[in-house]
Amino acid sequence: MANLVISAAGAAVGYFVGGPTGAQIGWMLGSYFGPHESQQKMAGTAIGDLRVQTSQYGVGIPVIVGKQRVAGNVFWATDKTAHQYETKTGGGKGGGGSSVTTVTTTYSVNMAIGICKGPILGISKVWADGKLIIDASTAGSPLIGNLYVGNNTQMPDATMESHLGAGNVPAYRGLAYIVLTDFNLGQTGRIPNFSFEVVKEGGI
């Protein structure tokens, strides 16, 4: 619309100076120097703070017998990492016509989640905000992350050491926990509430 207004103004000035021929020249000059609206770029909502509130100190460590579902406690996390993706729609053949570029931002994070007192045999199911995301009994649904069963020989996690430095990360022996690397938080950037079905010796 702005382009048409400028073109019309150019034609009016051109007509006053040089009649019909001047009007044509004025229209062309107005079209050339006016704004072009062939492309638009739209950015989705992005969160302003990428920091993560991690630990909840003083929380008791559950002791599991058999098979039991317990809530996890995030005790370490990195700042969130933003990832931007562009999607282009519209536009005619040969690059003509209007097009809209939409920028979508998603987030990922590295985190360690305490589960219970170890050692355990393993984790059979994982829920995020009450939604089942991992079921070991279902083919093609392997356990995500790096699970530490809480025995007396487990070593410090490599992902945590890459951020905190070698020798600065405890092995957390006696604690069953899981480390999730580059976990996808989607567009909300919110860490879900995790719970785990733990299998300990004597479980069925």
Task: Describe this structure as you would to a colleague.
With 204 residues, this protein is of the alpha+beta class. Helices cover 19% and strands 38% of the residues. The protein has two helices and ten strands. It has helices at 2-33, 158-164, and strands at 39-43, 67-71, 73-77, 81-90, 99-117, 122-128, 131-135, 146-148, 175-186, 194-199. It is elongated, with a radius of gyration of 29 Å.
Quick structural summary:
It is built from 2 helices and 10 strands. By secondary structure, the protein is of the alpha+beta class.
List the SSEs and their pairings.
Layout lengths: L1 H32 L5 E5 L23 E5 L1 E5 L3 E10 L8 E19 L4 E7 L2 E5 L10 E3 L9 H7 L10 E12 L7 E6 L5
Parallel strand pairs: 1-5
Antiparallel strand pairs: 2-10, 3-5, 4-5, 5-9, 6-7, 6-10, 8-9
Counted by DSSP, the helix tally is 2
Q: Give the class from helix and strand content and strand pairing.
A: alpha+beta
Mean pLDDT: 77
Major beta sheet, specifics?
A: 6 strands, mixed
Number of strands: 10
Q: How helical, in percent, are the residues?
A: 10-25%
Order of helices and strands: HEEEEEEEEHEE
Report the uncertain regions. Answer: 1-15
Q: Rg to the nearest angstrom?
A: 29 Å
Rough shape?
A: elongated
Distance between the termini: 71 Å
Features:
single chain, 204 residues, alpha+beta, six-stranded mixed beta sheet, four-stranded antiparallel beta sheet, 10 strands, elongated, disordered N terminus
